[in-house]
Amino acid sequence: MLEVCIVLFDFVTKALYRAFSVLVFSNAWIALGAAAITLHTITLCNLYGAIQFVDELFIATFAIYNFQRLLRLKDLEYSSEQRHQFIARNRIALAVLSGVLVLTVLRSVWQLHTLGGVNLLTMIVGVGLICLLYSWKPFSPNYALREVPGLKLFIIAGVWSLATVFIPWYIGLLQIQSLGDFGQVHSLTANYISFQEILLIGISRFLFIAGITIPFDIRDLKFDKEFQYTLPQVVGVDWSKRISILLITMAFSMYLFSPVAMQNKVATLSFGIACIISAGFAFGASVKRPDLYCSGGIDGVLLVPFLFELLWRLF
Questions:
Q1: What is the pTM of this model?
Q2: Cα dihedral sign, 55-100-73-234
Q3: What residues does each domain of the chain span?
Q4: What is the DSSP string of 73-125?
Q5: Per-block average pLDDT, block size 10, for the chain (315 residues)?
Q6: Exposed (0-12), middle (13-18) or buried (19+): which is 181, by Cβ within 10 Å?
């Protein structure tokens, strides 16, 4: 009986590991993280008018991350990394699925254009173009945006703060302005946060994403070109880990400065837990860590704030 239980346990753990690996390596995991951290923003800041954007962000994140991986596959297809091998084996399926999803996103973006006009469309298309040019080299055979010296960390943190904070805030504001009843508009606006308040959340998100991106740069030391001047290339692994923890700490400190965060103790606690977990991952970062350490563990931290709030409300 004991042997049967051991075999069954081994089978289940291997099956769960394979399922989680597929979720991570297909970029569905990071897409879930983008959706979850945006939902955290929406619940924190009362941006429920932007809830429709979450689905679109999930799809766009899934498609763009796969597009970026497929673009770099020629350089990485002989890599021993599990993620690169998975993408090489499933390149056709991922390309087709990503292409179909992009078409659905374009339709949704046009629907948002009818709500927000040129300004919203410019914001969304601008973020999308930056994401595409991050790994794509249509203008220069030598440089994609990720290879511009010293720029990689700022691009990632900037895009994520725009996509998960500022765009949802703007969509929520447009939803309020689109209502016809003045009394209803006034009632909703009374509970709506100002740009100054969302700016504090946006800066906090920028610092947080920058902090949790540094362990990825440590992992990528063996892939990044010398002229990219990523933080680990410039200051070394140990100092990069210290800076990562400092940025995560600063992100939580900035979060505490926001009046809307201090009014929502559960949201503040949930983000604090996410920061503590992230700092632990940053402390343990190493070039030798397996890919799931970053792509599974650190990316998974993005789900913590919303999931914690959800469980708190359920129980």
A1: 0.89
A2: negative
A3: 2-314
A4: HHHHTT---HHHHHHHHTHHHHHHHHHHHHHHHHHHHHHHHHHHHHHHHHHHH
A5: 74 84 90 95 87 88 85 65 76 82 74 68 84 76 73 92 93 74 44 81 96 91 73 89 96 90 88 96 91 91 94 86
A6: exposed
